[in-house]
TrEMBL record:
<feature type="transmembrane region" description="Helical">
    <location>
        <begin position="191"/>
        <end position="210"/>
    </location>
</feature>
<keyword id="KW-0472">Membrane</keyword>
<dbReference type="Pfam" id="PF01098">
    <property type="entry name" value="FTSW_RODA_SPOVE"/>
</dbReference>
<feature type="transmembrane region" description="Helical">
    <location>
        <begin position="168"/>
        <end position="184"/>
    </location>
</feature>
<feature type="transmembrane region" description="Helical">
    <location>
        <begin position="287"/>
        <end position="307"/>
    </location>
</feature>
<feature type="transmembrane region" description="Helical">
    <location>
        <begin position="46"/>
        <end position="62"/>
    </location>
</feature>
<keyword id="KW-0812">Transmembrane</keyword>
<dbReference type="InterPro" id="IPR001182">
    <property type="entry name" value="FtsW/RodA"/>
</dbReference>
<keyword id="KW-0133">Cell shape</keyword>
<protein>
    <submittedName>
        <fullName>FtsW/RodA/SpoVE family cell cycle protein</fullName>
    </submittedName>
</protein>
<feature type="transmembrane region" description="Helical">
    <location>
        <begin position="12"/>
        <end position="34"/>
    </location>
</feature>
<feature type="transmembrane region" description="Helical">
    <location>
        <begin position="319"/>
        <end position="341"/>
    </location>
</feature>
<feature type="transmembrane region" description="Helical">
    <location>
        <begin position="116"/>
        <end position="133"/>
    </location>
</feature>
<feature type="transmembrane region" description="Helical">
    <location>
        <begin position="353"/>
        <end position="374"/>
    </location>
</feature>
<feature type="transmembrane region" description="Helical">
    <location>
        <begin position="74"/>
        <end position="93"/>
    </location>
</feature>
<feature type="transmembrane region" description="Helical">
    <location>
        <begin position="145"/>
        <end position="162"/>
    </location>
</feature>
<keyword id="KW-1133">Transmembrane helix</keyword>
Amino acid sequence: MKQPDRFTERFDWGLTFILLVFCIISLVGISSAQGQYEGNFVLKQAIWYGVGFFIIVGAVQFEPDQYRKMAPYLYVVGVTLLMVLAVAPESIAQETNGATRWLELPGIGSFQPSELMKIFYILMLASVVSRHQENFILKNIKHDLWLLGKILLVALIPMAFILRQPDLGTSLVFIAISAGVIIVSGVSWKLLIPAFSLTAVGSATVYFLVMHAPDWLELIGLRPYQFDRVISWRKPELYAADEGYNLLQAMTSIGSGQMLGNGFQSNQVNVPEHHTDFIFTTFGEDFGFIGASFVVAWFMFLIYHLTHIALLTKDPFSTYLSVGVISMLTFQVFQNIGMTIQVLPVTGLTLPLVSYGGTSIMITMFSLGLIYSIRFHHRNYMFGGDTEIK
């Protein structure tokens, strides 16, 4: 069978359909939530989606091998932007809610360097792991430790700047990306099991310190407001006037929808950041358990589609790249939805493709553009013969 050559046959129309549905979901949710705000967020979000699709078309123009070559340079650009944010004057890097995460660029507006760094990190990580596997064909513990050391070094540099902002939520995204790529990289489970066990113990220790000795954590740069989020997560009713307010309002909003919801634009419960961080509550309140479940199911459909592409690609770099994107999106979805129903502590992570925000939409579309590139140029990287991505 001849491999498809025409653009219309090589372009991933299935993923495009998934994104168009997400666009509708996002616009519906924002339309319902924006009643408590001034400004037309729906129109702005539609424009950002339009820009995002242009980004995808641009991303497709480069083959995976070209991204692999560009990865180190893009990584340096991302780290440089984080360094600029760290030393920039308050006029272009204003502090908001105790954190400095945004650059105010004249003529462009607000821009969050850490969002772009997530994509550059995925590219760099995929490049480092694939090159390591090429250089060390024979696997042993020594080579695996060397690979883990490389990954740790590549991850710690941007994370150091991001934690300094501070932005614990984005740092956790970097950890999730790293974990996903490491699991599929071929590193021996003799190393992974102890490493993951130590991580679990470390997380439990941090939780214990937050609850009983927070002063110790301030010595490594964490801020008191981050501790409050964890404490108020456990017992939000005790912090109903401040740290626990958002969570209580979110749970009340979702619970009020019950099975079928209160109807579009019901807005019976005032939820802060209704159109951004807590947009999932809109679907629970307006469309009930059925509507909220549809949003979750559609994310599962997206992850399944991306996983299908990752499993079929033969090129190691493309595989690690796909896994990095999947890990990033999966963690952000799990974290955002989990925090609205008290499964996880509240962080500043938005719901990908649904929450309002130009930076979030463009970066997510860019990450998916990388998957489009793998699909579009698949004839160079598939198993051969008649095998192709459907």
